[in-house]
Structures are given as structure tokens and as C-alpha cells.
UniProtKB/TrEMBL annotation:
Forms a complex with TatC. The keyword Membrane applies. It is found in: Cell membrane. One of its GO terms (cellular component) is TAT protein transport complex. The gene is tatA. This is Sec-independent protein translocase protein TatA. It comes from the Bacteria. Part of the twin-arginine translocation (Tat) system that transports large folded proteins containing a characteristic twin-arginine motif in their signal peptide across membranes. TatA could form the protein-conducting channel of the Tat system. Pfam families: TatA_B_E (PF02416). It is a single-pass membrane protein.
Amino acid sequence: MISASIFLGMPGPTSMIIIVVAILLLFGGKKIPELMRGLGSGIKEFKDASKEEEENEEKK
């Protein structure tokens, strides 16, 4: 019962294809690598900051 409610909010494969096509139409093929690079660097900064926070907690 619980597992069924978890999958309720997840988009299906058809929805994912529509989202990808919409992103391609909005940004074009040349802008997508720049967007992904920015997203990747943002995720990396977030992980580094959380790791630094954990190290500060352990020192206390």
C-alpha cells in the first residue's frame, strides 16, 4: 500500500519524453550542455558545503 503511494507522484515515461522535448524546444541543442554544466557545478558546491558542515559538527 505504501509503495503504491510513492509511485503516484512520479512521472511516467511518456511524461518524461514530453518534458525533454519541451526543454529542447525552449533552450535548443547548444544551450543544454551549458545548463547541465551549471547544474552539475551547483550540485558539487552543495555536496562540498554539506560535507564541510558535517566535518564541523564532528569537531565539536
